[in-house]
Amino acid sequence: MDDFDEFDGDGPEVVKRFMYVNRRAPYGTVYALECLETILIAAAFEQDVSVVFMDDGVYQLKKDQDTAAIGMKNFSPTYRALEGYEVEKLYVEKESLEERGLTAEDLVVPVKVLNSAELQEIMAAQDVVLSS
User: Fold this and answer.
1) 40, 50, 113, 116: which has the fewest C-beta neighbours closer than 10 Å?
2) Buried (b) or exposed (e) across 17-34, using 16+ Cβ within 10 A?
3) Rg value, the chain, Cα
4) In a domain? residue 112
5) What is the largest CA-CA distance in the chain?
6) Is the pLDDT score of 6 beyond 60?
7) Are the C-beta atoms of 20 and 52 separated by less than 8 Å?
8) Which residues is 51 bridged to in the sheet?
């Protein structure tokens, strides 16, 4: 008998803490959209997912994006779906917002605004940190 014959599928579930760091503007490359899709997949597998937006990545969450001139669909409203996947740990780097003249009220979803030192502490507690 193989060891697998006794496995009933009810063993302990392994949950990892995944942090996705979004640093790139939402359009011009596929990185932002593919990262969002990856986040949704990880959340569907019931992992502990958190998301950070910093540098030009803060633009991914900006309200009222007009993408008609570049011929691309505005996917920023898709971030609202994260709540349905229980992805509620959304962080934005304070310095990145300020440098771009934005506030938390300019964003499509509620976020926790943290300075870079606070974000470093949270990142250090993750099992996996992926940056795009």
Assistant:
1) 116
2) ebbbbbbbebbeeebbbe
3) 17
4) yes
5) 65
6) no
7) yes
8) 20, 90
